[in-house]
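Q: For a teaching handout, I want to show students what a protein-ligand complex looks like in token form. Below are the inputs, and the small molecule is farnesyl diphosphate. Please produce the holo structure.
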Amino acid sequence: MKTRTPEAHLLPQVDLTRLPQHIAIIMDGNGRWAKKRRLPRIAGHRAGIRAVRQVVEACARMGVRCLTLYAFSVENWKRPHTEVKLLMDLLREYLKKEIAELNKNNIRFGAIGRISNLPPLVQKDLYTTIEKTQDNTGLRLTLALNYGGRAELIDAVRDLVTHLHRDGALDVNAITEDELSRHLYTRDLPDPDLLIRTSGEMRLSNFLLWQVAYCEIWVTDTLWPDFKEQDLFQAVADFQKRERRYGGLG
Ligand code: FPP
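A: Here is the structure, written as tokens, with farnesyl diphosphate included.
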């Protein structure tokens, strides 16, 4: 794969000069995909990883700057212990297998969420992947893990207030949108401009609540394991047809 040299025949509908800077994806439907095939749910997650690989590669090839994937929410701990354990094992397997490919494609890896509450071995693999890809300058791939949008806002407010206290008496006027943004997990990423959700549900599911304020939302009935680069190109092409006004008159 060569970064930034997309095959023209795969991308007829996308204008590469007007790409979304940051694409965020709620990858939903792994369970339903498995059920349709009478397979265990974990087979759906495994197939979901194949879709992750395709989409990461397609984003890098198109020249998208940032891709953030919702891989495990704070609510996902409520799933059966065996499924949670298998998801963590799959994540570790993905990280170990993927480092070489990430480096080959100049992709910088990151993670957002309450990472310190993940199992220690998962944390170790995450930090290894972050460190080994930190000098890459292409796509920024971020996994949201043990992530919740409300939890992120609470963490940001706690961090900001602690920071302001350190400077003396708390001045509430110092709490501004820009200042709060600087304390989010995503402080060094632009806000997403395109949010994709698979498997048809019209919900945000506690994902990047602050950051999606002006984001375009694109929902497809396709289940995540069936999501292919052609679906991504379609989402980007549709995004490019929309008129973004940010509350103004355009
Ligand atoms: C939703 O499907 C998906 C998840 C809970 C997590 C997404 C995980 C993966 C794609 C695999 C692991 C990813 C990485 C990057 C290692 P669901 O189980 O909620 O599906 P359902 O709504 O059909 O039951």
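A: Two things your students might notice: Strands lie at 22-26, 66-73, 108-112, 140-147, 194-197, 216-219. The mean pLDDT is 93.
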